[in-house]
Design goal:
The protein is mainly beta. The protein is built from one helix and nine strands.
Length: about 130
Protein backbone atom coordinates (compact mmCIF):
# COMPACT_ATOMS: atom_id res chain seq x y z
CA UNK A 1 0.00 0.00 0.00
CA UNK A 2 1.53 3.32 -1.08
CA UNK A 3 0.58 6.46 0.82
CA UNK A 4 1.82 10.07 0.53
CA UNK A 5 5.21 10.61 2.19
CA UNK A 6 6.82 13.88 3.27
CA UNK A 7 10.54 12.99 3.46
CA UNK A 8 11.57 16.34 4.97
CA UNK A 9 9.72 15.47 8.18
CA UNK A 10 7.34 17.46 10.32
CA UNK A 11 8.29 19.83 13.10
CA UNK A 12 7.47 18.62 16.59
CA UNK A 13 8.53 22.00 17.98
CA UNK A 14 7.71 25.34 16.38
CA UNK A 15 5.56 25.17 13.24
CA UNK A 16 7.37 25.52 9.93
CA UNK A 17 6.03 26.32 6.46
CA UNK A 18 5.08 23.15 4.62
CA UNK A 19 4.82 22.38 0.94
CA UNK A 20 1.30 22.37 -0.44
CA UNK A 21 1.97 19.15 -2.28
CA UNK A 22 3.68 15.84 -1.83
CA UNK A 23 5.73 14.31 -4.63
CA UNK A 24 6.65 11.03 -2.99
CA UNK A 25 4.92 7.98 -1.63
CA UNK A 26 6.03 5.31 0.79
CA UNK A 27 5.06 1.66 0.78
CA UNK A 28 4.13 0.60 4.30
CA UNK A 29 4.31 -3.02 3.20
CA UNK A 30 7.97 -2.62 2.22
CA UNK A 31 8.87 -0.25 5.06
CA UNK A 32 7.47 -2.49 7.80
CA UNK A 33 7.66 -5.98 6.31
CA UNK A 34 10.61 -5.59 3.93
CA UNK A 35 11.51 -8.08 1.25
CA UNK A 36 10.86 -11.17 3.37
CA UNK A 37 7.34 -10.85 4.81
CA UNK A 38 7.14 -14.63 5.27
CA UNK A 39 9.55 -14.40 8.25
CA UNK A 40 7.40 -11.84 10.08
CA UNK A 41 4.32 -11.88 12.26
CA UNK A 42 2.44 -9.36 14.41
CA UNK A 43 1.27 -9.68 17.99
CA UNK A 44 -0.67 -7.39 20.32
CA UNK A 45 1.15 -6.51 23.54
CA UNK A 46 -0.53 -7.08 26.89
CA UNK A 47 0.95 -5.68 30.07
CA UNK A 48 3.31 -2.85 30.92
CA UNK A 49 6.72 -4.48 31.41
CA UNK A 50 8.14 -2.79 28.27
CA UNK A 51 6.62 0.69 28.67
CA UNK A 52 9.98 2.44 29.14
CA UNK A 53 11.05 1.10 25.73
CA UNK A 54 7.98 2.84 24.24
CA UNK A 55 6.02 -0.40 23.92
CA UNK A 56 2.70 -0.02 25.70
CA UNK A 57 -0.27 -2.26 26.54
CA UNK A 58 -2.37 -2.60 23.38
CA UNK A 59 0.43 -1.81 20.91
CA UNK A 60 1.09 -4.19 18.05
CA UNK A 61 4.68 -5.28 17.49
CA UNK A 62 6.09 -6.60 14.22
CA UNK A 63 8.35 -9.57 14.93
CA UNK A 64 10.93 -11.06 12.56
CA UNK A 65 11.74 -14.77 12.98
CA UNK A 66 14.56 -14.43 10.42
CA UNK A 67 16.83 -12.23 12.57
CA UNK A 68 19.53 -13.86 14.68
CA UNK A 69 18.98 -12.73 18.31
CA UNK A 70 21.65 -10.41 19.71
CA UNK A 71 22.40 -8.64 22.97
CA UNK A 72 19.92 -5.79 23.66
CA UNK A 73 17.36 -6.93 21.06
CA UNK A 74 13.72 -6.85 22.11
CA UNK A 75 12.36 -10.33 21.54
CA UNK A 76 9.23 -12.44 21.75
CA UNK A 77 10.31 -15.49 23.74
CA UNK A 78 8.76 -18.65 25.09
CA UNK A 79 9.84 -19.54 28.61
CA UNK A 80 8.45 -22.71 30.16
CA UNK A 81 5.50 -22.67 27.75
CA UNK A 82 4.58 -19.01 28.28
CA UNK A 83 5.15 -16.13 25.87
CA UNK A 84 6.88 -12.96 27.01
CA UNK A 85 8.24 -9.79 25.40
CA UNK A 86 11.53 -8.63 26.91
CA UNK A 87 14.95 -7.20 26.07
CA UNK A 88 17.67 -9.83 25.74
CA UNK A 89 20.82 -9.51 27.83
CA UNK A 90 23.45 -11.92 26.57
CA UNK A 91 26.50 -12.33 28.79
CA UNK A 92 29.43 -14.71 28.49
CA UNK A 93 27.87 -17.49 30.54
CA UNK A 94 24.30 -16.32 31.05
CA UNK A 95 21.15 -15.04 29.43
CA UNK A 96 18.63 -12.65 30.98
CA UNK A 97 15.24 -11.28 29.96
CA UNK A 98 15.07 -7.65 30.98
CA UNK A 99 11.84 -5.69 31.43
CA UNK A 100 11.81 -2.01 30.53
CA UNK A 101 9.83 -1.00 33.62
CA UNK A 102 11.40 -0.91 37.08
CA UNK A 103 8.22 -2.41 38.57
CA UNK A 104 9.32 -5.76 37.10
CA UNK A 105 12.40 -7.85 37.86
CA UNK A 106 14.94 -9.25 35.38
CA UNK A 107 14.46 -12.93 34.61
CA UNK A 108 17.55 -15.16 34.55
CA UNK A 109 17.34 -18.02 32.06
CA UNK A 110 18.82 -21.23 33.50
CA UNK A 111 20.80 -23.37 31.05
CA UNK A 112 18.26 -26.20 31.41
CA UNK A 113 15.18 -23.97 30.94
CA UNK A 114 12.58 -24.69 28.28
CA UNK A 115 13.37 -21.47 26.40
CA UNK A 116 13.17 -20.25 22.81
CA UNK A 117 13.43 -16.88 21.07
CA UNK A 118 10.53 -16.74 18.63
CA UNK A 119 11.61 -13.54 16.93
CA UNK A 120 13.01 -10.04 17.21
CA UNK A 121 10.81 -6.93 17.38
CA UNK A 122 11.49 -4.60 14.44
CA UNK A 123 8.56 -2.16 14.60
CA UNK A 124 5.80 -1.04 16.93
CA UNK A 125 2.37 0.00 15.67
CA UNK A 126 0.84 2.43 18.12
CA UNK A 127 -2.58 4.10 18.20
CA UNK A 128 -2.14 7.75 19.25
CA UNK A 129 -5.69 9.05 19.23
CA UNK A 130 -7.38 9.03 22.62
CA UNK A 131 -9.74 6.09 22.86
CA UNK A 132 -13.23 6.60 24.27
Amino acid sequence: MDIPFFPDGVSAGFPSPADDYCEQTISLDTEVFGNAPFTKFCVRVTGTSMKDAGIDHGDIVVVDKGIEPADHDIAVCVLNGEFTLKRLKVEKDSLWLLPENNQFKPIPIPKDADFEVWGIVTHTLKYHRKRK
